[in-house]
Amino acid sequence: MVRYEQDLVRALLHEQHPDLAALELRDVEGGWDNQQWRLGPDLAVRLPRSDRAPGLLRTEQAWLPVLAERLPLPVPTPVRVGEPSPRFAHPWTIAHWVAGEPADRAPITRPDAADTLAGFLRALHHPAPFDAPASSTRGVPLAQLDPEFPSWLEAISTNADAAREVWDEAVAAPAWTGSPLWLHGDLHPANVVTQDGALTGVIDFGDLSSGDPATDLSAAWILLPADAAPRFFAAYAQADEATITRARGWAVMRALNLIWIGQRGRNGLPGGKPTWEPAGYATLERVLAG
Question: What is the pLDDT of residues 232-248, one digit of tens each?
Answer without folding.
Answer: 999 999 999 999 999 99
